[in-house]
Amino acid sequence: MEGLVANKDKHQWFTPVWAAEALFATHFGHLGEGDLVLEPTCGTGNFLKAVPAHVRALGVELDPVLAEAARRATGRPVITGDYTHVDLPDDPTAVIGNPPFDMDVVDAILDRCHAILPPGGKAGLILPAYAFQTASRVVAYARRWSLEQEMIPRNLFRNMMKPLCFAVFSKDGIGNLRGFALYRELHDVNSMDKWVSQELSVGRSPWKSVVSKVVSDMGGVADLADIYRAVAPRRPTDNKWWQAKVRQTLNRSGAFKRVGDARWALAEAPATAAA
Questions:
Q1: How far is Cα 50 from Cα 74, in angstroms, rounded to an integer?
Q2: Distance between CA 135 and CA 17 in Å, rounded?
Q3: How far apart are CA 180 and CA 188, in angstroms?
Q4: Using an 8 Å Cβ cutoff, are 88 and 58 in contact?
């Protein structure tokens, strides 16, 4: 493979074999003879080398020169073609690799992974940290995957200037996020009415202020469901963390009193308001 070097203009960075072995052992070490590991955009096949001999493995590489180098270096079958469209002899149970750092390419790879992986299947990818820089992108991933990530050193690759991570996408239908703080919350706050998001950002007791205004605007008494509707994000959300904050505020702040089943009033409101 002499002369095959990373090409940063093509977003190609070849993973050191020792690093591929360590990532495979940590996240995919449970795989066995009944599994098939696929490395998309396999380059010279360094993740294929990391797969133990008793586990079936297959590579896909668009560049025919790299594909041939991978075949010779690993002894594994390597299909020459575009992973997002190429016909596969069998569906994999796991995908692992280091795709080009182009998010359109990454998203196309993840679309194919989701289509062909079985329930419980996983895709582990080395990615630039900016792949997860916005709440909306991560929440969109979580609608299809459970997702976890860990930082890895950027100088794993010579002259790499971007922070890196290794991300594992699990097709489990749950949508858990590990290693991601505030993504769902920010996505929801940005989708709430402007006055709500502003108060939550700058208020001294933000949730108390928001709930107090909602109940006050409803005449001093409100059903819990109506408070939820007034605060709810405009975009659909599967994580109702904000409902828990509303309930916590009603029960603990002292500014409210329960006046019925799931019905609340301002604590200083006249008793007739509860009728």
A1: 9
A2: 33
A3: 15
A4: yes
List strands edge to edge, sheet with 221-223: 221-223, 263-266, 256-260
- In tens, the pLDDT along 198-237 reads 999 997 899 999 999 999 999 999 999 999 999 999 887 7
What is the mean predicted confidence (pLDDT) over 164-188?
96
Nearest CA among 209, 229, 218 for reference residue 264: 218
Pairing of strands 263-266, 221-223: antiparallel
Q: Decide: 73 and 57 in contact? Cβ < 8 Å.
A: no
Amino acid residing at 63: D
**For the chain, which domains are there?**
8-181 (3.40.50.150), 185-274 (1.10.10)
The string of pLDDT tens digits covering residues 52-96 is 999 999 999 999 999 999 999 999 999 999 999 999 999 999 999
Confidence category of residue 271, pLDDT binned at 50, 70, 90: very low
- Residue 126 DSSP SS3: strand
DSSP state of 15: P
pTM: 0.87
CA-closest candidate to residue 40, choices 103, 104, 102, 105: 105
Distances (CA, A) of 16 to 19, 80, 85, 155: 5, 22, 27, 11
* Sheet containing 94-97: order of strands: 78-80, 56-61, 36-39, 94-97, 122-128, 164-170, 146-152, 177-178
